[in-house]
Amino acid sequence: MALDVHHPSPEFLAFWREYHLCTLTTLRADGTPHVVAVGVTYDPEAGLARVITNKNSRKVANILASGARSAGASGARVAVCQVHKRRWATLEGVATIRTEREAVADAESRYAERYGRTPAPNPDRVVIEIALDRALGRA
Asked: Are 128 and 53 in contact (CB under 8 A)?
């Protein structure tokens, strides 16, 4: 079922506030999917999902390469998903890599709120910021 990314149902939003590991799907240079486990935060007011990660990760490389391959594109199409029993939710959009200290600190704070722990310091941390344009699910 398609949902409004900026105005999700209370159940859908509550599901994204619960502690669940998620997956992030990016595309490799050959077009095949690369799926990894991640923590995701969802900010419907801004229409964004965020993933904190290391700047040297394969997912970051895939996003940077995909954006470069797309003529005139400023990012890469990605999807994040979570599932628990019969409930599931997917957020899709265009991902960019944010390196600004303020953006990283904000994403770390959001991660700590959702997952109940502050991430260990990492000078190589970046944020995968996903400008959302599609939400699907059954929460």
From this structure: yes
User: Cβ contacts of residue 130 below 8 Å, gap of 6+?
Assistant: 48, 49, 50, 51, 78, 80, 91, 92, 93, 94, 95
The DSSP element (H or E) to which 76 belongs, if any, is strand 76-84
Q: What is the mean pLDDT of each run of 10 residues along the chain (139 residues)?
A: 91 97 96 97 98 98 79 79 97 97 98 97 97 95
The radius of gyration computed from the CA coordinates of the chain, to the nearest angstrom, equals: 14
Statement: the pTM of the whole predicted model exceeds 0.85: yes
Separation between Cα atoms, residue 33 and residue 111, nearest integer Å: 25
